[in-house]
Amino acid sequence: MSDNLARHFLLREDVTFLNHGSFGACPRPVFAAYQGWQLELEQEPVEFLGRRLHDLLRVPRESLAAELGCDANDIVGVPNATNGLNIVAQSLDLKPGDQILTTDHEYSALEKTWAYVCRKTGAEIVVVKVPMPLVSEAAFTQTIIDGMTERTKVLFLSHITSPTALLFPIENAIAEARRRGIWSVIDGAHTPGHIKLDLDAIGADFYAGNCHKWMMTPKGSAFLHTRREMQGLLNPLVISHGWTKDSKAPGAKGSFGNSPYIDEIEIRGTRDPAPWLTVPAAIAFRKENDWWAIAEHCHSLAQDTARRLGELTGLAPLSSPEFCAPQMVAMPIPECDTLVVHTTLFEKYGIEIPVFKWQDTCIARLSVQGYNSRPQMDRLIDALTELLELKQAPLAAQG
Asked: Which EC main class describes this enzyme (predicted)?
């Protein structure tokens, strides 16, 4: 299967690419659509950007909303999930003593975002430790609830965590936050195209996700989803033609006929909109190739590789299978110089995979996409066995 699918991608043949989770990889047909939009823009920039763009931007919103279980008027295009979450974090009315409740598994860029917000507002960050290994939704939810106080104003959680590749069961924690009047802000950078999403059912106040990771659009396309009653709380990071001075008035319209929420965030000066306009092409590519079935195969390959490495290292996994991201797994490895291992894997073995230390655990974070294969997993296991001086089981014993 991998050889057939690999031909759709532009990845270098001399690199075993096992890091789809960081930046994704764009299939050739989607990349061609991307270049087509760029060419169309260059042929008549004034017409494209000045007269057509606000109508063109509606198409990916509608396409993506149908895919993610939400209304197109509640979703807006942004360059990346970090950008979308910054809009939220820097808009919320926080005061000295207010608390932002989060976990010890969050993405470092967003940890810095909330630290910046706290420096400006006097709010405080409260970090709870998720019980590890993660094997129970009830234990996870209770840990989050136990961290809530009368001062908690924001609940900030990843849906799929970046360092530990865990799929957090966030729904009940979000529901409790709603009951207590706490804003729920969800980092869904890794979720679109990775798991099936129903944003309305999840019910988060604010949810940002990347399309350029597992949905496989070109780099620079993501979304921010905001519950309708929360949209008036947000302010754009960039003030441009989409902004109007009466945008907070009841029933106000944006400068281009959409809601102020959409026009203020999407219309932000001259930029290349091609990545966002390619969202429908990416969704079509996935449907044409039955990508959810491919994802099931990738999930099996990822879990099998993690099991094989675990048998060699003797180290326990970070979670039970249901709480592991389907196509991404953080595999504990023995204590080592992670930078050296990461660099050597690439320079000596041609393997691109993140290796880092999270808290006290050394991790190799494996991503498996449709272009990956079992021989590539074998190559990774062999390389780590040699680098980490693991004891390789005989081939007969490996089955």
From this structure: isomerase
Beta strand pairing status for 355-358 and 124-128?
A: unpaired
Looking at the predicted structure, is the pLDDT value of residue 2 above 70? no
Among 285, 310, 340, which residue terminates a domain? 285
> Which residue type sits at 181?
G
Domain boundary among 285, 300, 320: 285
Domain carrying residue 340: 2-26+290-398
Question: Does position 397 have pLDDT exceeding 50, yes or no?
Answer: no
How far does Cα 340 stand from its chain's mean position? Answer: 27
First-residue to last-residue Cα distance in the chain: 21
Pairwise CA distance, residues 378 & 294, whole Å: 19
* Portion of the chain with pLDDT greater than 90, in percent: 89
Query: Domain check: are 272 and 297 in the same one?
Result: no
- Model confidence pLDDT, tens digit, residues 88-135: 999 999 999 999 999 999 999 999 999 999 999 999 999 999 999 999
Beta strands in 83-216 (DSSP E): 99-103, 124-128, 152-158, 183-188, 206-210
